[in-house]
Amino acid sequence: VQLAQSGGGTGQAGGSLRLSCTASGNMFNYLNMGWFRQAPGKELEWVSVINSGGGTTNYADSVKGRFTISRDNAKNTLSLQMNSLKPEDTAVYYCATGWALYKYWGQGTQVTVSS
Asked: Which residues of the chain have pLDDT under 70?
């Protein structure tokens, strides 16, 4: 499985950005997908997860109510809609997947939120 990320960039506090992650191959429909982020000088942080069918999602408390994870299995695409952005959301964001562990990772996308 190869994951290619797009989106992100620079936004203002209170604004919105969207991340996308497109998977290669034909296993996407069977895999749970997650988003992680790593801020400068900090450890990798789990952000959100969605199950293979898209019916179950979960979020870190830090983003709950502001971020929405979704997927389009017909297009092998995972998305993260980020609203009400805060400067502390600044980080490199990664999509990830795998059967038992997060074995496959996207290349990372920088998100910078200015105050």
From this structure: none
Strands 109-114 and 9-12, by their bridges, are parallel
Per DSSP (E only), the strands in the chain are 3-7, 9-12, 17-23, 33-38, 45-50, 57-59, 67-72, 77-82, 91-97, 104-105, 109-114
Distance from chain centroid for Cα 46: 9
* pLDDT tens digits for range 38-52: 999 999 999 999 999
- The percent helix, strand, coil of the chain (3-state, each to 5) is 5, 50, 45
Q: How far apart are CA 5 and CA 68, in angstroms?
A: 16
